[in-house]
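Dear colleague,

Following up on yesterday's call, I've attached the two folding results inline so they're easy to grep. Please treat them as preliminary; we haven't cross-checked anything against experimental data yet. The first protein's sequence and structure tokens come first.
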Amino acid sequence: MKDSATVRSWWAPFHNFMHEGFANTSSTLYQRVSNVVMWAIFVSIALIVLETVGDLATRWAVFFTVAESVVVTIFVVEYIANVYVTKPWRAHVLGTWGIIDLVAILPSLIGFLPMRQIRVVRVLRVLRFLRLLRVLKLARQVTDAYKESAAEREQGTMRLDLEIYFLTMFSVLIISSALMYYAESSVVGTQFTNIPVAMWWSVQTMTTVGYGDVLPVTLAGQGVAAITALCGLALFAMLTQVLGKAMIRGLFGGSEDELHEANMDAVGHEALSELEHIAELRDTDMISQEEFETQRDLLVSRV
């Protein structure tokens, strides 16, 4: 009994720490953990992008290895902690965020294995691209940081919309650039010599500028270009909606829901006045009962 009580007294602080750091979105510790994870995501993406620049990965091999090991350690700890605080644990392992977390760490863990098979260039490219999918982990950081109280939602809508927009744009930029680089890098005399060059091309394509200084020549590259252009149009529509909401709030001093409700109230009052008017016409025999019912139905359909 005494040993059991000792174990519980030791385990309780650990359990509270895990819950505060990985489950309680309103705690200070959770915000700090989220910031560490977010910086780890950006660092890991930067490492993958810079690895493709000339012989940078060779000259700074130790730095890249150590940095990647630190980042992967952070992701592994986060994954295990999320499995621990989620009840049942299968909900996280088989859920969307759990799968994204696993994809973020599995390629690096495989890459650390001393196996000749994974040293094949094509396999390494696949693993590097899968590591880039860590950018999807940013979606969790944005959604978890958003508080659900009505007051904060009213004040933070614009900020949240912009965060979602820039997150989406950054994700499209990174993923499309990596896909284009891996599709074109094996071509003799390719212009896509590294991912940063491909990022310059991706920015041109998404913004529909199209300078034409860097162009894909393979079928796979052209397919990536088409999808990237369509994503650019979708991002433009998304930005238009965000700015439209901001203009409505700035010009009229209210949210879209409030304006819609006020507009519906105005329409309702107008319809009621018209209904009273046609009722008077019916009572004075200016119109028949059938005409009254027809006009009444029209008013109801308008409201």
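Below is the second protein, in the same order (sequence, then structure):
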Amino acid sequence: MLQLLVLQPALLASRSCVRTATSSSRAAASVLRGGAVPSMLAATETKPAIYFVMGGPGSGKGTQCEKLIKSYGMVHLSAGDLLRAEVKSGSAEGKKIAKIIEEGKIVVSETTVGLLRKAMSQADGPFLIDGFPRSMSNLQAFEAELGPCEFMLFLEVSEEEMERRLLKRGVSSGRSDDNAESIIKRFRTFVSESMPVMDELERRGVVHKVNAEAGADEVYSRVCETIGRHPRPVLPKE
């Protein structure tokens, strides 16, 4: 068993299940205060529904998103996949991103939001965005550019189970971050960077948690029950 995180007992108890291109600095501050967020997409019925999916590394985000795409016809945007595609392109930016990913750190918000904005401009939605926002900077950048987060699906899985899944996946995935050293760094980054985002969104009442410890099909059944809570829910395809 990997020696993962050495956390204070109180933190472990509260989190046992690891559960910008901003228009101005004032906009970011407004987000933190829970104030109005400037948006390119007005909060109207014509705005495409956006479902964010988050969870620790190895929580099953990709698996659940694949199932949702088939059943609901959503446009899937994976922040991680977009970044890895940039790395694969061999561009100078891609090389910088590769180094950051290997170190288990979070790519700067301007880069990730820029890739998401470009992808969203090429489709009508509804959008299913997984692995984002991973930091408060990510959240501020996205909301200042594209509007407030209305719905966050959070997959809760214990660190032990996520570790087991990642090591198993690492045997065949070919991903540079599916190794013991990177896994430890990714867990630490998730707790320090991503959990504050969940705390902020939970304070707003837009986080919807699903226990994702079970098999993929059972978890998906729970996910389907949960996504109907979106302010403008998407209906399953016929």
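For the second protein, one point worth flagging: The chain is about 50% helix and 10% strand.

Best wishes,
A.L.
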